[in-house]
Amino acid sequence: MLTLRKTKAGFGLDLTEDAEAPPPNPGQVTVRVEHAGICGSDVHAYEWTDGYGFMVPHLPVVMGHEFAGRIAATGAGVALPAGTPVTVMPFVPCGTCANCTSGATRNCLRREAIGLTRHGGFAGFVTVPAANCLTLPDGVDTELGALTEPLGVGCEAVLTGEVGLGDTVLVMGPGTIGQAIALFARAAGAGRVLVAGRADGPRFDVMRQLGFTDLLDVAEAPLNDLVLAATGGRKVDVVLEATGHPPTIVDGLSVLRTGGVLVIAGIHPGPVSLPLTDFVRARHQLRGTHGCDRRNWDKVLTLLGRDPEAFRPMITHRMPLARGLEGFELARQRAASKVMLTP
Ligand SMILES: [Zn+2]
Ligand SMILES: [Zn+2]
Q: What is the pTM (predicted TM-score) of this model?
């Protein structure tokens, strides 16, 4: 079968004819992948920026961790009927380390990541633990199902930021994670959602289609000026960062109210230096968020099922897996928002 694999520690990916997915062992299923999205982190691994060295012992590996499809085959002890539409959670806990046995599987010390350290969804079929599969609700097709993982990251960021009723929220970065954050901030009851980007026309267009109109282009004026002009001089209650650009953290803190929370969701290529005296005096809270807890995946599917079509504008490009490298180049140049590949 055709797969998109990372084969070496360096720039690029290989589109190759590969062996079929192995048959499922007890407790596993084979999923026929119908849609697989290209994630910002996939683009980092494609470019081989810092922070992906953990993949090296697992190469070559089929990438793709944002995917949905249908159950094609089941191992012993699995109750999911063939044909069931599912989305797949990418993290596989070991089940035996000290954190797993104490119940904190999310903090597993030896967790595997589908699409990064074991084979993922840029393939016709992939064999995964049945426990990683969540059945899609009625009305949610597998294309929308493939958005569950990035939506989960956004949901988790909003919960981490404790966005509250009527809050004014600033989302930094209008890409897929920024879009997911904006959607869940609105769902959480934010009174106003401002979105900042830099000369990000195509992604601002997606934001408009999702119903967000307070779009601030920092290519035109400093963030501080744009935010204060939009709010009538008030700082914001919560800042949620999804740029992966370290200086934006300092910019975000400059418009955060006293006692406010700034959540970092981006994957950053380097450190940042903070004005710590201002930070302390303003009693700012800086929090990191990563991935999505199991129970929050259920929340995301519930909200997806309530109004599925409201999420569809996030997908801007659709192409066969055979054109996957073209999709990566589009994502890399920020010409696309979410690129969905179809095996
Ligand atoms: Zn992702
Ligand atoms: Zn473990």
A: 0.96
